[in-house]
C-alpha cells in the first residue's frame, strides 16, 4: 500500500506538468517570452505583425512589449484579447497606419509608446477610449498636424511627447482636453506659428520644450498667459530675432528660461517683465550688442546668467545692481574692452565670473575692476577670473591679476575716460588720504577703505628726469630712498636682523636728494613691526611651507608666520588682519589650470580637495594685506607634491592602523632583543672575568742572555718543562753560571687551587 500511495502522487504530479506544458502555447503568442506572469516580452523577434493568441490572455498580463520589430500596420483586432493591459510598447517599429479602433478594448491602458515609427497621421478618435492614459509617446515620427479631437477624453494625461516630428502649426486650443498635463515636448519640429490660445487650459503644465523649431519672434502677450504653473521654458535653437514687452509677464513661477542660439540682437526694456521667480536665464549664442540699465531688474531671484557668445561691447555700470542673488555670470567670448569698476559692487554672493575671450584693453579704466577682483579674491568670495589683455601690445597675453597698476596706461586719446589722469598725484591723494612733505610725491598702496589710516610719506626716485617725472609714469620699478622714523621703543623685526632704537633712522639707500619718505608705522604697545606691503610680508614673514596627509585626491598644506602686527590697526572692518591664499597648479602638465584657495581667518593650514590621482602639483602661499596681493609670484614659499595612486589609498584607514600595529610590534621586539642581549653580555663578561682571575701567566721565566742548557743538574726540574722550547736553540759549551737562571720559588708549579700566592707572585698573574 505504501508503494501504491507514492505511485499515485508521482503520477498526479507528472499529469499536472504535462497539462501545464500543453496549456502554455495556448495563451503565449508565437516567438514571445512568457516566463514572467505579468509581462509578455516580444522585443526584437523579427515580427512583421502583432502576434495572435488563440485563447484569451490571462488577467495577470499587464505589460506587452513589441519594440524593435518590423510591424507596419496596427489593425482593429490586434489587441482585442489584451483588455487588461496597463502598458503597451510599440516603439522602434515601422508602423505607418493605426486603425481608429485599434485600442478600443484597452480601457485600462495607462502608458502607450508609439515613438520611432513612420506615422504621419493618427486618426481622430483613436485614443478617445483611453481615459486612464497618463503617458503618451508619439515622438520621432512624421506627424505633420495635431488636432484637438486627437486628445479627446485624455483628462488624465500627464506626459506628452510629440518631439521629432514635422509639426508646423499649433492650432487654437489644440491641447484643451489635457487639463492634467505636466510635461509637453515639442522640440525638433518645424513650428513656424503658435496660435495665441494654443496652450489654453494647460493650467497645470510645468515643463514646455519648444527648442529646435523655426519661430522668428515672440510678440503675443497671450501665448504663455495661461501657463500659471510653468517652471521651465526652453526656446533655444530657434530663429527668434526679437522679444516683445511683457511676453512672459504671466509666468510667475518660471525658474528656467533658455533663449540660447537664436538671432536676438535687441531686447525691449520690458522683455523680461514678470519673471520675478526666474533663477536661470540662458541667452548665449545670440547677437546682443549691449546690456542696458534696467533690462535685468525684474529678475529679482536670478542666480545664473549666461550672455556668452554674443556681440556685447557695452555693459551699463548699473546693469546688475538689482541682482542680489546672482551667483554665476558668464560674459565670455564677447566684444568687451572694459568694464566699470563698481559694476559688481552690489552682487555680494557672486562667485563664478567668466570674462574670458574678450578684447580687453588694459588701461586705467580697468584699475577699479582689478581692485574689486583683488578684494573679492582676498575674502575667498570669487573663483579665479581670467581677464587677458588684448591691448596695448606691450601687455598682450598678460592677465590683469599680474599687471601692475603703473602699467595700466591710458589708451591713445582716451585719457578723459580715466578719472583725474591729468593730475595723478591728486587722484591718489584723494583716494587714499595721504599727506606728504613739501617737494615730495604722495604714493601708497591702494585701499578700498575710505577710512584707512593716513600715512605720511615722502618719496624721491634715484633717477628723476626733471619735470617729466611729475607728468609721466615711469615703466618698471623705481627705487626710492626710504627713511623710517619712530618714537617708540626699540623694535626688533624677526628674520630681518635689524633693530630700530628710539628716534633712530633706518635708510634703505643713501639719500640723493633733500626729499624723505617718513613712514610712522611703529606699534608702541606690542613692539612688533606693522605690515603694509604684501611683498615684504611674503618674503620675510611666511616660513616653513610644507605638505602632509597626501592621498589620491587631498593634501593638507601647513605654514608658519613670524610675529607681526596686523595691517592698519583700527582702520575698519576686514582690514585689521592678514589673510592667506594658496595657489595650486599642475606642474609640468600641458593642461594647467591654476586655482586659488583662501584660508579662513588666521588659519595656518588648508586642505586641498578634488585633486587628480598620481599627478604632480605645486603649492604656493602668499599673504593678502589690506585687500592687496603682491604682483610677484611667491616662489620662495612653494612646495611640490605628488598625489598617490588610487590603488594605494584604498582602505587608507586600515593601512594606517596596520602601520601603527607594525611599529608597536617592532618596538616591542627591539626592547626584548636589548634585554636578551644585555643578559647574555653580562654573563659573558662575568665568565671572562672569572677566567681572567683564575688564569696563570708566566713572564720571563728564563734569561735570554745565555743559552739554556738542560744538562745541568740544578735546573733539571725546569728543563723538563721547557725541553720543546729549548730544542730549537743552539747548544753552547760555555760553563753555566749562577746568573743564568731566574730565581723563583719551586711551589710556583704546584696546584694553584691549593696554594695561596703571595704578593711577590701576584704580579705574574696580572
UniProtKB/TrEMBL annotation:
<keyword id="KW-1133">Transmembrane helix</keyword>
<dbReference type="InterPro" id="IPR000483">
    <property type="entry name" value="Cys-rich_flank_reg_C"/>
</dbReference>
<protein>
    <submittedName>
        <fullName>TLR4 interactor with leucine rich repeats</fullName>
    </submittedName>
</protein>
<dbReference type="InterPro" id="IPR001611">
    <property type="entry name" value="Leu-rich_rpt"/>
</dbReference>
<feature type="region of interest" description="Disordered">
    <location>
        <begin position="431"/>
        <end position="511"/>
    </location>
</feature>
<feature type="domain" description="LRRCT">
    <location>
        <begin position="358"/>
        <end position="411"/>
    </location>
</feature>
<keyword id="KW-0732">Signal</keyword>
<keyword id="KW-0677">Repeat</keyword>
<feature type="transmembrane region" description="Helical">
    <location>
        <begin position="660"/>
        <end position="682"/>
    </location>
</feature>
<keyword id="KW-0433">Leucine-rich repeat</keyword>
<dbReference type="InterPro" id="IPR003591">
    <property type="entry name" value="Leu-rich_rpt_typical-subtyp"/>
</dbReference>
<dbReference type="InterPro" id="IPR036116">
    <property type="entry name" value="FN3_sf"/>
</dbReference>
<keyword id="KW-1015">Disulfide bond</keyword>
<dbReference type="InterPro" id="IPR050541">
    <property type="entry name" value="LRR_TM_domain-containing"/>
</dbReference>
<dbReference type="InterPro" id="IPR032675">
    <property type="entry name" value="LRR_dom_sf"/>
</dbReference>
<keyword id="KW-0472">Membrane</keyword>
<feature type="compositionally biased region" description="Polar residues">
    <location>
        <begin position="495"/>
        <end position="507"/>
    </location>
</feature>
<dbReference type="Pfam" id="PF13855">
    <property type="entry name" value="LRR_8"/>
</dbReference>
<dbReference type="GO" id="GO:0005886">
    <property type="term" value="C:plasma membrane"/>
</dbReference>
<keyword id="KW-0812">Transmembrane</keyword>
<dbReference type="InterPro" id="IPR003961">
    <property type="entry name" value="FN3_dom"/>
</dbReference>
Amino acid at each position: 500500500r505504501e508503494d501504491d500511495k507514492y505511485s499515485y502522487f508521482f503520477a498526479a504530479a507528472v499529469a499536472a506538468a504535462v497539462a501545464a506544458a500543453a496549456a502554455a502555447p495556448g495563451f503565449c503568442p508565437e516567438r514571445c517570452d512568457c516566463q514572467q506572469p505579468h509581462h509578455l516580452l516580444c522585443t526584437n523577434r523579427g515580427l512583421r505583425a502583432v502576434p495572435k493568441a488563440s485563447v484569451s490572455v490571462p488577467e495577470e498580463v499587464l505589460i506587452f512589449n513589441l519594440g524593435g520589430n518590423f510591424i507596419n500596420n496596427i489593425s482593429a483586432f490586434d489587441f482585442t484579447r489584451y483588455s487588461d493591459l496597463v502598458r503597451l510598447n510599440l516603439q522602434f517599429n515601422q508602423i505607418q497606419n493605426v486603425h481608429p479602433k485599434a485600442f478600443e478594448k484597452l480601457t485600462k491602458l495607462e502608458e502607450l509608446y508609439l515613438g520611432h515609427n513612420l506615422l504621419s497621421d493618427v486618426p481622430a478618435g483613436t485614443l478617445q477610449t483611453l481615459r486612464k492614459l497618463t503617458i503618451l509617446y508619439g515622438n520621432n515620427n512624421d506627424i505633420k498636424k495635431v488636432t484637438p479631437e486627437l486628445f479627446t477624453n485624455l483628462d488624465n494625461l500627464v506626459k506628452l511627447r510629440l518631439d521629432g516630428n514635422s509639426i508646423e502649426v499649433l492650432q487654437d486650443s489644440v491641447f484643451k482636453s489635457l487639463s492634467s498635463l505636466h510635461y509637453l515636448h515639442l522640440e525638433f519640429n518645424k513650428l513656424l506659428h503658435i496660435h495665441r490660445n494654443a496652450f489654453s487650459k494647460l493650467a497645470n503644465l510645468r515643463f514646455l520644450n519648444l527648442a529646435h523649431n523655426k519661430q522668428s519672434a515672440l510678440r503675443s502677450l497671450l501665448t504663455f498667459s495661461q501657463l500659471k504653473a510653468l517652471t521651465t521654458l526652453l526656446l533655444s535653437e530657434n530663429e527668434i530675432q526679437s522679444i516683445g514687452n511683457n511676453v512672459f509677464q504671466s509666468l510667475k513661477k518660471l525658474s528656467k528660461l533658455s533663449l540660447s542660439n537664436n538671432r536676438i540682437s535687441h531686447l525691449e526694456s520690458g522683455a523680461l517683465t514678470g519673471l520675478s521667480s526666474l533663477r536661470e536665464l540662458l541667452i548665449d549664442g545670440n547677437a546682443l550688442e549691449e546690456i542696458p540699465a534696467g533690462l535685468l531688474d525684474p529678475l529679482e531671484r536670478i542666480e545664473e546668467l549666461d550672455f556668452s557668445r554674443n556681440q556685447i561691447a557695452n555693459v551699463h555700470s548699473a546693469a546688475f545692481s538689482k541682482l542680489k542673488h546672482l551667483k554665476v555670470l558668464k560674459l565670455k567670448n564677447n566684444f568687451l574692452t572694459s568694464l566699470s569698476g563698481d559694476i559688481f559692487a552690489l552682487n555680494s554672493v557672486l562667485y563664478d565670473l567668466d570674462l574670458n575671450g574678450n578684447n580687453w584693453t588694459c588701461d586705467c579704466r580697468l584699475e577699479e575692476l582689478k581692485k574689486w577682483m583683488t578684494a573679492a579674491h582676498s575674502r575667498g568670495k570669487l573663483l579665479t577670473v581670467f581677464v587677458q589683455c588684448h591691448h596695448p601690445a606691450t601687455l598682450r597675453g598678460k592677465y590683469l591679476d599680474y599687471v601692475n597698476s603703473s602699467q595700466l596706461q591710458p589708451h591713445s586719446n582716451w585719457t578723459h575716460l580715466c578719472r583725474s589722469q591729468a593730475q595723478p598725484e591728486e587722484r591718489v591723494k584723494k583716494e587714499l588720504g595721504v599727506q606728504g612733505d613739501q617737494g615730495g610725491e604722495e604714493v601708497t598702496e591702494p585701499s578700498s577703505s575710505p577710512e584707512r589710516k593716513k600715512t605720511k610719506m615722502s618719496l624721491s626716485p634715484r633717477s628723476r628726469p626733471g619735470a617729466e617725472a611729475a607728468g609721466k609714469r615711469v615703466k618698471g620699478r623705481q627705487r626710492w630712498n626710504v627713511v623710517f622714523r619712530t618714537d617708540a621703543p626699540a623694535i626688533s623685526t624677526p628674520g630681518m636682523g635689524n633693530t630700530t632704537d628710539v628716534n633712530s633712522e633706518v635708510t634703505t639707500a643713501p639719500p640723493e636728494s633733500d626729499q624723505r619718505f617718513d613712514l610712522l608705522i611703529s606699534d608702541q604697545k606690542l613692539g612688533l613691526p606693522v605690515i603694509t606691503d604684501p611683498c615684504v610680508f611674503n618674503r620675510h614673514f611666511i616660513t616653513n611651507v610644507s605638505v602632509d596627509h597626501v592621498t589620491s585626491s587631498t593634501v593638507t598644506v601647513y605654514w608658519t608666520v613670524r610675529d607681526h602686527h596686523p595691517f592698519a590697526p583700527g582702520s575698519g572692518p576686514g582690514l585689521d588682519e592678514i589673510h592667506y591664499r594658496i595657489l595650486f597648479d599642475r606642474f609640468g602638465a600641458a593642461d594647467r589650470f591654476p586655482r586659488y584657495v583662501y584660508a579662513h581667518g588666521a588659519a595656518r593650514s588648508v586642505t586641498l580637495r578634488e585633486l587628480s590621482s598620481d599627478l604632480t602639483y605645486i603649492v604656493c602661499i602668499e599673504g593678502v594685506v589690506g585687500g592687496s596681493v603682491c604682483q610677484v609670484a611667491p616662489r620662495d614659499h612653494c612646495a611640490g607634491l605628488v598625489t598617490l595612486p588610487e590603488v594605494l589609498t584604498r582602505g587608507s584607514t586600515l593601512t594606517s592602523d596596520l602601520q601603527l600595529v607594525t611599529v608597536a610590534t617592532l618596538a616591542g621586539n627591539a626592547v626584548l632583543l636589548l634585554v636578551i642581549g644585555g643578559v647574555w653580555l653580562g654573563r659573558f663578561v662575568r665568565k671572562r672575568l672569572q677566567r681572567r682571575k683564575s688564569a696563570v701567566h708566566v713572564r720571563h721565566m728564563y734569561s735570554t742572555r745565555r743559552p739554556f742548557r738542560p744538562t745541568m743538574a740544578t735546573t733539571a726540574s725546569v728543563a723538563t718543562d721547557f725541553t720543546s722550547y729549548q730544542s730549537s736553540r743552539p747548544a753552547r759549551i760555555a760553563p753555566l753560571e749562577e746568573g743564568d737562571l731566574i730565581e723563583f720559588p719551586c711551589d710556583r708549579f704546584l696546584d694553584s687551587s691549593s696554594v695561596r700566592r703571595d704578593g711577590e707572585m701576584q704580579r705574574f698573574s696580572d
